[in-house]
Amino acid sequence: MLGTVDVNLASLRIGFLHWGVFRHFDPIHDKPKGTKRIMQSLQDIKFVIDTWSTREDADDGNEPQSYFGIEEQGSLGHVLSAAVDLQKLAIEFTCQIDFRYVVLDTHWPHLHTIDLDSVDTRQDDWFRFFELHAASLKCLTLASIKLLDGNWPDVLERMQPLLNLEEARFGKDLRAVASNQMWSFEPGYPDSEVGSVQVDRTRWALEKFMVNGGVCPLRDDETHPWYHFY
Hints:
Distance between the termini: 41 Å
Number of helices: 7
Strand order of the largest sheet: 1-2-5-6-7-8-9
Helix content: 25-40%
Radius of gyration: 19 Å
Order of helices and strands: EHEEEHHEHEHEHEEH
Number of strands: 9
Low-confidence stretches: 54-65
Mean pLDDT: 84
Largest sheet: 7 strands, mixed
Shape: globular
Strand content: 25-35%
């Protein structure tokens, strides 16, 4: 447990972490003792978080469900907010989690690299975060991001001049609920006809656009086709 470590840590990387662990940490009140000091020393955090649970009342005792308690309590966000010197954040979930409960309204003034995998977001929450970090952010990786309102071409064209990125990467997919659109970055998904050439073409064009600007390539349906995801 973090509170039992009697050293300052610059980097903390955990390959698979159950959501329930965050219930036991309150860095604001330094519980367990030492947690606040450890979090304040961190500059690099990488978590893969298991956000699936097992329903005890399921007939077979093994029915998976998303655990929304992590969102309601904001426990993860409160833990991360204590990392006041954070420079690199990479966080992946095993099922989609609302972005606002991950970042809350936290401003990490030295954050230059962020890697997000499997989050849902609304435009207001999305831009609140990126406006706060526009001055410092240089590297961006997005994978399996579901936009709950609006559309991705508009959002990305607003993001590009806001940020001054040196590197951008995309993985898995981008989804837009309102328009029922998905751009895939994985060959064979969601359709077996989605080939690696097509996937790479769209991903590379998008990564170039986020660094250099111009017209969002996702507006070109013929060159960069989208798919229905439901």
